[in-house]
C-alpha cells in the first residue's frame, strides 16, 4: 500500500463512512443525542490539548484534508474577515467545548450556543431523533446548556484568542432562559452578552427556537426593537444579528426585515428549525411510535430547503443589498449551497447536512462554489450573492 492509499484509508472521510455513516443510515440504534455528545466530548478534549505535539500534528493533517483556501471565497462583513462562507451553525457546540478547532474542519466561521444566562437541563429525553431516509432530524432540546458563566470559564480554559487576533470568526448565539419571564427577557439576554461580549466577533439574538415556551413572541417587531435597544446599551456590544423562524408569514418576514434595516442590525440568519412538518406529517418516529404531526419539536435538514430559500429571497428583496443574510436549513450539497448564495445569502451555515454527509461536506461545498464562480466569470463570491444564476 502506497502512502497516498494509506492516507485515504485513514482520512476523516473514510473513517466517517466506516464508523458513523452506518449508524446514521437508520433511525434506530445509538441514540442521536448520545452520539453527538460522545463526539463533542472527544473534540472538546482535543481542543483543550490542541497545542500538544501529537494532537497538533493530527489537527494539521485534518486541516490539510478539509480546508480549501481561495481568495474568491473571502469576504468582509460587519467588520469581520471571513476566509470562506461556510459556518458551523449554532446548536452543535452549545457549550463551546471545541471552540478552538472548528477552523481545522474547514469552516470559515463557527457559532457557539445557544447559551442562556441560567444553566438549564433542557426538555426531557429522548429529545433528538434521526429521520435517516429524509436526511432530517427532529429536536426538542430546549436550550440545554451549562449557562453563560460556565461558557466563559470553558473558553478561558481553552485560551481562545480574542477577536481580531484569531484566524477564524467565532459568533455567539444567545437565548432566553426558560425560567425568565418574557417581560424580563431583555435583561436575561443582556446578562449573557455583558459576560461574553469580549469573546465574540458577532452575537446572534435567538428569538426563533420552537422549544422554549413563548420565545417566538420576541419576533414581534415591537418586542424585537425593545430587545435590540437593551442590548445596544452594553459597552463594546459586538455586531448584532437576529435568527428567525421558517414558520413566519410574508407579512411578518417583511416586518422583521424593516426592523433589521431601521435598527441597523448587522444581519439576519434564516432559518431556525420548523414546526411545520413540510409534508412529513404521517412520518412515524420509530423510537416513540408517534407521527411527526403529533410530536413536539423543530424539524431540520433537507425538508427545510425550499422554504429556507424562499425566505432568503424575500429578505433580500425587502431588506436591500447591503444587509448581510446568513442562510441555514437544508444545505447538504454544493448545489444547495450555491442556490442559497445566489438567492441572496452572503454566508451559509450547516449542521444536520454536515452530520449526515460527514466532514467531507465542507471541502466539497467550497470546491463546488469555487468552480461555479469560475464558470460564471465571478471574481469574488460577493458578486454571486442574489444573482439567481443557476448551477452549471
Descriptive overview:
The protein is an alpha/beta fold and 392 residues long. It has a single domain (3-383), classed as Alpha-Beta Barrel (TIM Barrel), CATH 3.20.20. It is built from twelve helices and 15 strands. The chain has helices at residues 3-9, 12-24, 32-48, 53-66, 148-157, 185-196, 221-232, 250-262, 305-319, 334-343, 352-357, 361-376; strands at residues 75-77, 80-82, 86-88, 109-115, 128-131, 136-139, 169-174, 202-206, 240-244, 267-270, 284-285, 290-291, 298-301, 325-328, 347-350. The strands form four sheets. An eight-stranded parallel barrel has the order 3-4-7-8-9-10-14-15, surrounded by four helices. A three-stranded antiparallel β-sheet has the order 5-6-13, with no helix packed on it. Helix 10 (334-343) links the parallel strand 14 and strand 15. Helix 5 (148-157) runs parallel beside helix 6, helix 6 runs parallel beside helix 7 and helix 8 packs across helix 9. The radius of gyration is 20 Å and the shape is globular.
Amino acid at each position: 500500500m502506497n502512502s497516498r492509499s494509506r492516507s485515504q484509508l485513514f482520512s476523516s472521510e473514510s473513517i466517517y463512512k466506516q464508523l458513523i455513516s452506518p449508524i446514521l443510515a437508520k433511525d434506530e440504534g445509538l441514540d442521536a443525542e448520545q452520539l453527538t455528545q460522545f463526539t463533542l466530548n472527544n473534540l472538546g478534549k482535543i481542543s483543550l490539548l490542541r497545542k500538544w505535539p501529537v494532537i497538533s500534528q493530527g489537527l494539521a493533517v485534518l486541516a490539510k484534508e478539509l480546508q480549501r483556501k481561495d481568495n474568491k471565497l473571502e469576504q468582509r462583513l460587519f467588520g469581520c474577515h471571513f476566509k470562506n462562507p461556510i459556518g458551523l451553525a449554532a446548536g452543535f457546540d452549545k457549550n463551546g467545548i471545541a471552540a478552538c478547532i472548528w477552523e481545522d474542519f474547514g469552516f470559515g466561521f463557527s457559532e457557539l450556543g445557544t447559551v442562556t444566562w441560567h444553566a438549564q437541563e433542557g426538555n426531557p429525553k429522548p429529545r433528538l431523533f434521526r429521520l435517516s431516509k429524509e436526511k432530517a432530524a427532529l429536536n426538542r432540546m430546549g436550550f440545554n446548556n451549562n449557562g453563560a458563566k460556565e461558557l466563559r470559564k470553558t473558553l478561558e480554559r481553552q485560551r481562545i484568542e480574542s477577536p481580531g487576533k484569531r484566524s477564524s470568526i467565532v459568533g455567539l448565539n444567545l437565548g432566553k432562559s426558560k425560567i425568565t419571564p418574557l417581560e424580563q427577557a431583555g435583561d436575561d439576554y443582556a446578562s449573557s452578552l455583558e459576560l461574553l461580549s469580549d469573546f465574540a466577533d458577532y452575537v446572534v439574538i435567538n428569538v426563533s427556537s420552537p422549544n422554549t415556551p413563548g420565545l417566538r413572541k420576541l419576533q414581534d417587531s415591537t418586542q424585537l426593537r425593545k430587545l435590540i435597544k437593551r442590548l445596544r446599551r452594553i459597552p463594546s456590544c459586538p455586531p448584532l444579528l437576529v435568527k428567525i423562524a421558517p414558520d413566519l408569514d410574508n407579512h411578518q418576514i417583511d416586518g422583521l426585515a424593516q426592523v433589521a434595516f431601521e435598527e441597523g442590525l448587522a444581519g439576519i440568519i434564516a432559518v431556525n428549525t420548523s414546526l411545520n412538518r413540510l409534508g412529513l406529517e404521517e412520518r412515524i418516529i420509530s423510537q416513540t411510535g408517534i407521527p411527526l404531526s403529533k410530536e413536539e419539536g423543530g424539524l431540520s435538514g433537507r425538508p427545510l430547503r425550499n422554504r429556507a430559500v424562499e425566505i432568503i429571497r424575500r429578505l433580500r428583496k425587502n431588506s436591500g443589498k447591503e444587509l448581510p443574510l446568513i442562510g441555514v436549513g437544508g444545505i447538504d450539497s454544493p448545489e444547495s449551497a450555491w442556490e442559497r448564495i445566489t438567492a441572496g445569502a452572503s454566508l451559509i451555515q450547516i449542521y444536520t447536512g454536515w452530520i449526515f454527509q460527514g466532514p467531507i461536506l465542507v471541502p466539497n461545498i467550497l470546491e463546488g462554489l469555487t468552480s461555479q464562480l469560475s464558470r460564471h466569470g465571478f471574481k469574488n463570491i460577493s458578486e454571486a450573492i442574489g444573482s439567481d444564476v443557476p448551477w452549471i
